[in-house]
């Protein structure tokens, strides 16, 4: 109640008293860190999240990400799996309403339009096998459905998979971490999509190193990134999503051996009243290494 009323100092004080009585309450330490942070007490927030980190072996509360955002730790490699899984498990039932109706989420429509144009350019009327990575509730899959023979959705979150299963959009759904999934599928997909997903995965090169071998030669990859114009290849935002450097992203595609077909700036959605700008990318695995 105090926090909702904007009195984060008083909320932190009360939560500290509660934690004196229940020192192993991980969610309490997480709240305390958030209250301190909102009150401008960064040292207090870092101290609370360090307690949280010690209590939360699986990383469900994302303590490491929160510490990294505040300059108190490295951002780490790859997806913070337990944190992302818990986040979307909680969010699943409200996801579409929040994102589409309130935050003007546009990525599936925008990516689909680019993909349609590029598929036409290469004379692809239908894709045989598509992997929709981080399929969520199926917004991307719904757009792809009519143009794909066998459509697979892959997601970390069982609750998101349950939401999408209800719609019957995909031929197959799998609860899996996307890099682990891709490593088990060599040269299978002629389309791979990831709408608003690599923003949870950190550095792009390890992700592309897993995506490219899973694609058939001549296959297409379509994905979005949140973007920044700075020099870092990737940095973690206060939102706990990664923003990728524009030039680093372009170089990562080239280094992965992909041919860049589209590389466009766009507004992806709103966040706290501000537009989030990003990149929409369509790339192709060349037929032969000498193909481009
Ligand atoms: C913002 S939602 C986007 C969902 C869907 N692609 C869409 O456009 O509506 C991100 C989804 O990616 C999933 N995700 C994030 N990182 C993942 C990973 N490393 N492996 C598998 N799924 C992941 C999350 O569980 C979540 O469902």
Describe the protein's architecture and organization:
The structure is a single chain. Strands 1, 2, 3, 4, 5, 6, 7, 8 and 9 form a nine-stranded mixed beta sheet that branches. The N and C termini lie far apart (60 Å). This protein has 292 residues and is an alpha/beta fold. 43% of the residues lie in helices and 24% in strands. Helix 8 links the parallel strand 1 and strand 2 (148-155). It is built from twelve helices and nine strands. The chain folds into two domains: 8-74, Tetratricopeptide repeat domain (Serine Threonine Protein Phosphatase 5, Tetratricopeptide repeat, Alpha Horseshoe), CATH 1.25.40; 95-291, Vaccinia Virus protein VP39 (Rossmann fold), CATH 3.40.50. The protein binds S-adenosylmethionine (SAM). S-adenosylmethionine binds at residues 79, 84, 88, 107-108, 134-136, 139-140, 154-157, 160, 177-178, 195-197, 200-201.
Small ligands present? S-adenosylmethionine
Distance between the termini: 60 Å
CATH-defined superfamily of the largest domain: Vaccinia Virus protein VP39
Largest sheet: 9 strands, mixed
**CATH-assigned fold name of the largest domain:** Rossmann fold
Share of residues in strands? 15-25%
Shape: elongated
- In total, the number of domains comes to 2
Rg to the nearest angstrom? 20 Å
The tally of strands reads: 9
pLDDT < 50 runs, ≥5 residues: none
Order of helices and strands: HHHHHHHEHEHEHEHEEEHEE
State the helical fraction. Answer: 40-55%
- Which structural class best describes the helix and strand composition? alpha/beta
Counting DSSP H or I runs of 4 or more residues, the number of helices is 12
CATH architecture label name of the largest domain: 3-Layer(aba) Sandwich
Q: How confident is the prediction overall: mean pLDDT?
A: 93
CATH hierarchy class name of the largest domain: Alpha Beta
């Amino acid at each position: 109640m105090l926090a909702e009323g904007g009195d984060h100092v008083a909320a932190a004080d009360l939560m500290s008293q509660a934690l004196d009585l229940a020192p192993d309450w991980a969610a309490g330490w997480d709240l305390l860190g958030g209250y301190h942070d909102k009150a401008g007490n960064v040292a207090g927030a870092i101290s609370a999240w360090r307690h949280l980190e010690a209590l939360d072996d699986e990383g469900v509360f994302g303590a490491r990400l929160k510490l990294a955002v505040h300059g108190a730790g490295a951002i780490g490699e790859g997806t913070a799996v337990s944190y992302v899984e818990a986040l979307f498990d909680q969010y699943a039932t409200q996801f579409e309403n929040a994102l589409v109706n309130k935050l003007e989420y546009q990525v599936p429509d925008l990516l689909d339009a680019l993909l349609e144009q590029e598929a036409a350019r290469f004379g692809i009327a239908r894709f045989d096998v598509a992997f929709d990575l981080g399929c969520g509730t199926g917004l991307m899959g719904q757009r792809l459905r009519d143009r794909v023979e066998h459509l697979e959705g892959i997601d970390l979150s069982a609750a998101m998979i349950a939401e999408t299963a209800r719609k019957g959009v995909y031929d197959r759904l799998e609860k899996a971490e996307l890099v682990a999934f891709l490593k088990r599928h060599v040269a299978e997909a002629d389309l791979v999509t990831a709408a608003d997903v690599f923003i949870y995965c950190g550095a792009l090169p390890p992700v592309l190193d897993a995506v490219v071998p899973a694609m058939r030669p001549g296959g297409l990859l379509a994905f979005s990134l949140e973007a920044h114009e700075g020099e870092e290849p990737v940095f973690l935002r206060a939102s706990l999503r990664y923003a990728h450097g524009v030039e680093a992203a372009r170089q990562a595609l080239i280094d992965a051996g992909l041919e860049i077909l589209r590389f466009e700036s766009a507004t992806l959605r709103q966040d706290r009243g501000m537009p989030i700008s990003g990149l929409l990318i369509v790339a192709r695995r060349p037929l032969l290494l000498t193909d481009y």
